[in-house]
Amino acid sequence: MALSRPASRLLAAVAVFLIAVLAATLLLLRGGDGDGGGGDGGGGDGTRSAPPDDGVGPPRRPVVVVKIDNVEESRPQTGLSAADVVYVEPVEGGLTRLAAVYASRLPEVAGPVRSARETDVALVAQYGRPVLVYSGGAPEIEPLLRRAPITLVTDKTRPGAYFRGGDRPIPHNLYVRPHRLPGQNRERGPEQVTEPGAAPAGGTPTGAREVHFRAARYRFTWSAEDDRWRVSFNGAPLRTREAGRVTAGTVVVQRVAVSEGRKVRDAGGQLSPVAGTVGRGEATILRDGRSFDGTWERPSRGEATTYRTAGGERIPVAAGPVWVLLTPR
């Protein structure tokens, strides 16, 4: 039976309306917070999709990890005092680079921002689906980064979050404003990344501890006044622009296996080492003016690292920033 012209027009209008509703619904389901990314393939601005959440309440802010330079031209750094955890990674030529983890609070500015390393792929995976802030990386490791459960952000993919300072030469003058990063406009904070607790019995009274890399030297001196360890680097106090002297509540000397990975080399031909952070090994934990010799263990990339005494008792961290030095065995 043929429909009248008015009825046909009515049905056509209804069909257009239903299609529009369906399209809007699909757009909302795929939306997120407008920071780009969809699935593991990445979004139009090169970032990864937002981290999965626990499904209770509004979505959480993802943890932010910023790669920070620490050669002479980059000091004093900015934003280190706000970090929950600071990793010291071995890089080319025996030098080191820092990975600052922000969860409980964000600094206004962090940097100088430098490039990612193969070590970062496994290291930061223990923080859910974090935002990794860096300034680029070797072509050999970019596929590894893109496949990892990480939201990748560089000055090329999200230039509005970065700026260059005028007091230092390139590449030591690139900074990030963490509040402008993907997901950081959410009201609900990320999961806690450290669990402070009381120290186990025992330990050795320790006033200072030095940790040597081939071309970098760290010293941690206990300050009863600060109730923290004061951090020095290459014989001088390590300072930040926003808070002065850098201190740590806990220092972990984590002995790790170092491999050649994808055999990435810097411009001078020096090999970029890869620190293994999944597995098990020896560790020394400094807290409360004492040192505890024990072990570290991390069964898989998605799990956090735990520290235990030689007798198997868990060693929780103290209140305050945690510094973890990934030292070659």
From TrEMBL:
Bias (Low complexity): 52-61, 196-207
InterPro entries on file: DUF3048_C, DUF3048_N, YerB-like_sf
Family matches, as SUPFAM superfamilies: YerB-like
Pfam families: DUF3048, DUF3048_C
Regions of compositional bias (Gly residues) in chain numbering: 37-46
All residue ranges annotated as the DUF3048 domain in the record: 59-189, 211-324
Record-linked Gene3D superfamilies: YerB-like
Residue ranges, annotated region (Disordered): 37-61, 181-207
The protein, known as: DUF3048 domain-containing protein
